[in-house]
Amino acid sequence: MNEYNELRHGRTCVYDLQVHLVFVTKYRRNVFTDGVLTDMEQVMRSVCETMECKLIEFNGETDHVHLLVSYPPKVAVSTLVNMLKGVSSRRLRQKYDLRTHRNHLWSPSYYAASSGGVTLETLKRYIQNQDRPE
Fold first, then answer.
1. d(CA 131, CA 63)
2. Contact 64, 23 (CB under 8 A)
3. How far apart (Å, rounded) are the C-alpha atoms in residues 52 and 64?
4. Among 11, 109, 17, which Cα is nearest to 72's?
5. What is the pLDDT at residue 1?
6. Predicted confidence (pLDDT) at residue 5 exceeds the cutoff of 60
7. How far apart are CA 51 and CA 99, in angstroms?
8. Which residues is 113 bridged to in the sheet?
9. Are 56 and 68 in contact (CB under 8 A)?
10. In the prediction, which pLDDT does 132 show?
11. In angstroms, what CA-CA distances link 114 with 19, 40, 67, 108?
12. DSSP output for 3-40
């Protein structure tokens, strides 16, 4: 198991959940610089820790960001997204003069995809090849 697929433990479960998130700015405005993205990574990391999640990877361009987050089963992805977008918007707009539309940094939509250590085909074959009783 590599560093990204470490098993995490809750009180009653063992899990390995990751989600790839993409957030775009409102109207795809080019508002991010390297400095803004550096500060944003720290904000996102802080929010993740608060929610018992782990920010594995973060990067972005002038109008969007990508995050890879490991999260516990008790956290809904939609709740995680709302916290990440809300807190980052407030903190970054306090610090920087971001050219946002009506104080909205982020588009209301987002991209989320589950990610794991194996391909979907490998997982399907594993499930199909279980030793089912006759």
1. 49
2. yes
3. 24
4. 17
5. 38
6. no
7. 29
8. 20
9. yes
10. 66
11. 5, 22, 12, 20
12. GGG--EE-SS-EE--EEEEEEEBGGG-----HHHHHHH
pTM score, two decimals?
0.83
Tokens, residue 57: 């990877």
Q: How far, in Å, CA of 43 to CA of 28, rounded?
A: 21
pLDDT digits (tens, 9 = 90+) for 70-92: 999 999 999 999 999 999 999 99
Structure-token pair, residue 51: 């929610």
Q: Bigger pLDDT: 77 or 119?
A: 77
Burial 71-102, CB ≥16 within 10 A → b, else e: beeebeeeebbebbbeebbebbeeebebebee
Q: Which residues contact 123 (CB under 8 A, 6 or more apart)?
A: 116
